[in-house]
Design a protein that fits this description.
This protein has about 260 residues and is α+β, with helices and mostly antiparallel strands. The chain is built from 4 helices and 12 strands.
């Protein structure tokens, strides 16, 4: 009886020890469990394609979205303004050509009214940029006409725009190509434009000196040097001729004096 009791106690102890080990193994977290989980960005549900929240100030939020079914190149955009403090909610919408690349917020004219600028990539082969701009005054949205590139600004333009906000101004820069066709190659230079706002109209200032301007300046300097060299050569030739004439006159005078002396003798 004693042997059976001891055997029973021994088996029970082994069972308890095994169970404790299994519980301990379950309690120890694995490396995968210890990895910090990064919260994923919530997926955008169709028909929406893009979303960005712009927080201008506490209680003043602008949700910018693009939407549309059965097409990825055309659609529409939405700007949902939430004025939480004033309990006002407004919607601004418009047609969208291409897809939204980014959204920017600024106050270029420093009047306290925020501007929302939507950058979209057009559907053509050059990936030209399109800007949809609005200034918001309380619950009213005022559409702003973003200026197109002038003829001189388009020279060598082949897309590849980079937009950003710097010191309250809307900046735009893009590489300059040696032509405007698909076979054009970048020159290594870039054009930088600064956009401001005055009386709800955009102002544009070019901050960069183009390679074409440098080339023109170089040609002008070369031409100036050529003209200067030509003028210098002419002056030297004229100087040589005058020296030659002066020498000939002196020689003639000496001959005349000698002949006069002979006649006296």
């Amino acid at each position: 009886m004693n042997a059976r009791v001891y055997l029973t106690i021994l088996i029970s102890g082994l069972v308890i020890i095994t169970a404790c080990n299994q519980d301990a193994k379950k309690a120890v977290p694995s490396a995968a469990d210890m990895t910090v989980k990064v919260s994923k960005k919530p997926a955008i549900i169709a028909p929406f394609r893009y979303h960005k929240l712009i927080e201008v100030s506490p209680g003043q939020d602008y949700d910018v979205l693009s939407w549309g079914r059965a097409s990825t190149t055309i659609g529409a955009f939405l700007i949902l303004h939430s004025d939480s403090s004033g309990k006002k909610y407004t919607t601004t919408t418009g047609d969208l050509d291409g897809s939204i690349v980014d959204v920017y917020n600024s106050d270029m004219d420093l009047d306290g009214n925020p501007e929302i600028l939507i950058q979209a990539k057009a559907t053509d082969t050059a990936n030209y940029a399109t800007i949809y701009a609005f200034e918001f005054n309380n619950s009213r949205a005022n559409k702003l006409d973003f200026p197109r590139l002038t003829k001189s600004q388009r020279k060598g333009y082949n897309g590849g725009d980079n937009f950003y906000i710097k010191e309250g101004k809307f900046m735009r820069e893009f590489p300059i190509y040696d032509g405007n066709n698909k076979d054009a190659k970048p020159t290594g230079a870039k054009r930088v434009l600064e956009y401001g706002l005055r009386s709800n109209d955009f102002t544009v200032k070019q901050l960069s000196k183009d390679s074409t301007d440098t080339k023109t300046t170089s040609q002008a300097v070369s031409s100036s040097k050529s003209k200067s060299s030509s003028t210098s050569d002419k002056q030297q030739t004229s100087s040589k001729k005058s020296k030659k004439k002066s020498t000939e006159k002196k020689t003639t005078k000496k001959k005349h004096k000698k002949h006069r002396g002979d006649d006296d003798n």
